């Protein structure tokens, strides 16, 4: 049975790959991006199975209007994929106020507002799947990438709560957590030159060549589609052996740091709680 997908950030990278794969399967796609002409080749090939609209996810009024239009134009939207986002490589001190505000508006606030816009439609149709592009960087952090981690750790927390809120309506959620994927994401990312105090330090590293990255763009998206088709989609979808190794390692280290604090943690309990234990 064919499905209908709604995808943001469809111009390049994982978003474009997702649109291409689901169309090739025979599904329908409502794709959004800042420059719709970037999908003209797919529109010519797939006709009315591809619905395209311009969308800047930082414009909440436009976002709500496009979401309303997409659901009105399709009998049902089965899967929503929130993919719009980008990266800024810089040590925290070197970031500009504008870079901070713009990236949070795109990667975090835009994702939150998209979820808020689609949930009423998914609830009205009796359910659906909301997939959010996160990253292994929602569990761990690298120097000179702190702003990106802000958005991914933030959206992970938002979806942790949202998943519980919407489950009674038949709405499932999945955080997509890939590793380092060979994609145009890294070419498109902003790279701020390292200022003098940080030169030679942990934040002063050369970009990793694409051919040295672990994960295939095509295979990553195939994993996303398999999860969307599954009877029980995972709330967190780790993709790439690098992501699995780094995420599980980070979680083990975090638990190892916290476990020895059990007795000390209990010293903060109220007296009546202590007496009852």
Automatic annotation (TrEMBL):
Pfam annotation, one family: adh_short
NCBIfam families to which the protein is assigned, alphabetical: PRK06482.1
Highest taxon, organism lineage: Bacteria
Protein name listed in UniProt: SDR family oxidoreductase
Entry keyword set: Oxidoreductase
Family affiliation: Belongs to the short-chain dehydrogenases/reductases (SDR) family.
Residues in coiled coil: none
């Amino acid at each position: 049975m064919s499905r209908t997908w709604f995808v943001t950030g469809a111009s390049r990278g994982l978003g474009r790959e997702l649109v291409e794969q689901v169309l090739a399967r025979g599904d329908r796609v409502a794709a959004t991006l800042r420059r719709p002409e970037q999908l003209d080749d797919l529109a010519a090939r797939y006709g009315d199975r591809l619905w395209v609209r311009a969308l800047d996810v930082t414009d909440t009024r436009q976002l709500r209007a496009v979401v309303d239009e997409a659901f009105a134009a399709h009998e049902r939207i089965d899967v929503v994929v929130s993919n719009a986002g980008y990266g800024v490589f810089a040590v925290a001190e070197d970031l500009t106020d504008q870079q901070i505000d713009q990236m949070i508006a795109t990667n975090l606030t835009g994702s939150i507002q998209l979820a808020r816009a689609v949930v009423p439609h998914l609830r009205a149709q009796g359910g659906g799947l909301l997939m959010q592009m996160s990253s292994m960087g929602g569990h761990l952090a690298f120097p000179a990438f702190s702003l990106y981690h802000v958005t991914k750790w933030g959206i992970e927390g938002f979806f942790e709560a949202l998943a519980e809120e919407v489950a009674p309506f038949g709405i499932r959620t999945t955080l997509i957590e890939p590793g380092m994927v060979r994609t145009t994401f890294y070419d498109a990312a902003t790279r701020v030159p390292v200022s003098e105090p940080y030169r030679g330090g942990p934040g002063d590293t050369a970009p990793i060549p694409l051919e040295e990255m672990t994960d295939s763009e095509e295979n990553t998206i195939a994993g996303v589609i398999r999860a969307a088709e599954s009877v029980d989609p995972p709330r967190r979808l780790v993709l790439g052996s690098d992501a699995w190794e780094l995420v599980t390692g980070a979680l083990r280290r975090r638990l190892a740091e916290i476990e020895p604090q059990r007795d000390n943690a209990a010293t903060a309990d109220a007296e009546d709680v202590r007496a009852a234990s």
